[in-house]
Amino acid sequence: MILIIDFGSQTAHLIGRRIRQLGIDISIVQPEDVMGEIQQKKPNGIIFSGGPASVYEKGAPTIHPEIFSLGIPILAICYGHQLTGHLLGGNVQPGKAREYGPVMLELNRKSELFDGITDNHFRVWMSHGDEVIHPPSGFEIVGSTQNAHAAVMQDLKRSIYCVQFHPEVGHTQNGEIILRNFIEKICHEDVSETKPDIQALIAGIKKTVRNGKVICAVSGGVDSTVAAYLIGRAIGKQLVPVYVDSGLMRSGTIERVKTIFTTYIFSHLIIVDARKLFLDSLHGISDPEEKRKIIGKLYVDIFQKEAAKQKGVTHLGQGTIYSDVIESKGTKNASHIKSHHNVGGIPDTLRLQLVEPLRNFYKDEVRELGRIAGLPEEIISEHPFPGPGYAVRIRGEVTRKRLQQEAMADGIVVEEIRKSGLYDTYFQCFAVMTGAYSTAVKGDGRVFAEVVAVRAYESDDIMTSRWADIPYDVLQKISSRIVNEVPDVSRVVYDITTKPPATMEWE
Ligand code: XMP
Questions:
Q1: What is the CA radius of gyration of the chain?
Q2: Is the CB of residue 386 below 6 angstroms from any atom belonging to ligand 1?
């Protein structure tokens, strides 16, 4: 196994993921726990992650220097690279020019780390202020960038390899080869491309829950479905899935959830019909934040009531995935998304232990798990849908009529995009009731009715997106179907705004 020391990097987990994909066990630890973990887990290699601190900052994370003389190979990345330079007596200084983003790396010495890379000059991704000016004794410089002379250094005797750049991020060319070389050639691990281990996850859930009972809010989306599937496989009837029907979800959601729990997961599904309650509570409310708060609170209240009716519930199952975990520590907006999405507040008030089998996985890994589990492709590949549902796609007050219009218009967008074969290439595509009104002539009469916007975009990381080039003939089809089939719509516009600045949802 490989130990990863997290010095506060956004990408420590990504390093772990890359290593796990090579079929190698990993453990991510805090710097202060490392020596104990080494004794216990006996790793074949150690990776130091990056981190936001400067080695000279008060309270900057550090590590017991004994780690360098244990004979266990070390790969030190970014902050790890600087810390190694600093602790072993090299000279680390604030760099003359900070490097952020892509820079060219020039290799000038052989290293096993770069075996199999034919080009001595390739693009790497940097994000650092400090710089190793002189490597510690015993180290030789292997590669440089324009601003970082000792961008790569190695001490072959002690098997320590340091890189200023981030091999784990997709923008670094040859990053996967570099990590693989470290694992295979330097740590001598047997690498095998691997798929997520469902059996191990199921065994973990069994061990956690034992004879307890797990209540789980489900939505029919990929995360909660895969989580419920794993929990269901582990504990069978001890799983209590609850679907709160807010009436704000896409058409067909309830049938879909029922099918999931009769065909793939065999636990008795509790359905709470709260459609009227949601609609009544949203009456007269048009402020986006107020809508979100009302919806979030209703979900929590209803779920809590349901949980209280169940006897012997010990755990709360959630489909939290790794990006939720990161977002919850991130921006205010992101943590808000998370709090709603994962029914925030419930764990505290119900005093239930959490079961979150997907907490360490990225979306594409969750999809992979679902596929291995045999869940149908239509569930696995479905676009994400916001927790507050259509309420954030209806600008202004949510009324029964506008909800119907939205569901119809959205259904048309998705259907036509699916027919065009482009569904899987977009991150999301949907319709928005804009709240704007315009004139149209329908039949022989003038109508003054609502404008529907179509939004579709591509995104890798949710943080940024570009609007999708939906072919004109598909846009044409969508537009004419919406104005013809959805009552009281006067026109259709296409939203051509990137994120940032515009968020994906309109509210
Ligand atoms: P934005 O609009 O913030 O959306 O660019 C980014 C992603 O998050 C989804 N989203 C939400 N999900 N509760 C959720 O569960 C929310 O309140 C919420 N707001 C946005 C959005 O659909 C997109 O995938």
A1: 26
A2: yes
